Amino acid sequence: MDDSTARRILGVGPHASLRQARKAYMQRAKMVHPDRYAHAEPPAQREAQRAMAELNEAWRTIRLGPPARPRVDHEPAREPDRAEPPRPRGCEICGHIPANRIDIRSLTGLLLIHRSERYAGVLCRGCGTALWRDVQAQTLTLGWWGVLAVFVNLAVLVNNGSYLRTLSGMEWPTDRVAGTEAPLSEPMPATRKVTARVLPWVATVTAAFVVALLVMLLARNAP
Ligand SMILES: [Zn+2]
């Protein structure tokens, strides 16, 4: 794989730093990782594996490739490519339109600290909804378990909720932008609804119970 193909697959420009390329790789890998497709149909699983292998190769190409040639000050200014009309921006995962910017987080509470993971990108309704359900279920399950995390998690859930409204207002993806380099050829298969999963319920009800208990104990011991 050559450098320009690798950069197209990762969605980074010719002058992007290694750090930017790594960030793009991590973002995409997180979203198309085959673990997300454990419950999907076999063709979707194979497609995710293929996409992941391609992303890995693109990142390896950029990471191990020749060092970027030094920037020349008098590089001739390139004529803008007029032949190519601007393409609509398709979903970063599957290349379909319509797509909108989604920026959601998951939280893991670890008693005194917490760890947050961000999933941001331009996504279609199919990929966005599949990802949203996984991320929201994860934060509802793991986000409550810390002193500060309880409060941070509420903010995370509210932020994620606003993007669910964005997703619900979008049309379902129809067409793929021609020539797009998105890792998957079809939108991500649907994941289970958050309300149909057991762990988020158990964790959230338990967390609410613990908080209520603490508040009662504090109230009783107050002078
Ligand atoms: Zn998509």
From TrEMBL:
Superkingdom field: Bacteria
Keyword Acetylation: no
Basic and acidic residues bias spans: 70-89
Matches recorded under SUPFAM superfamilies: Chaperone J-domain
Keywords noted in UniProt: Membrane, Transmembrane, Transmembrane helix
Listed transmembrane segments: 142-163, 198-219
Disordered: annotated segments: 65-89
Coiled-coil features, chain-numbered ranges: none
Pfam families cross-referenced by the UniProt entry: DnaJ
J domain span: 5-76
Keyword Transmembrane: yes
Protein name: J domain-containing protein
Organism of origin: Haloechinothrix aidingensis
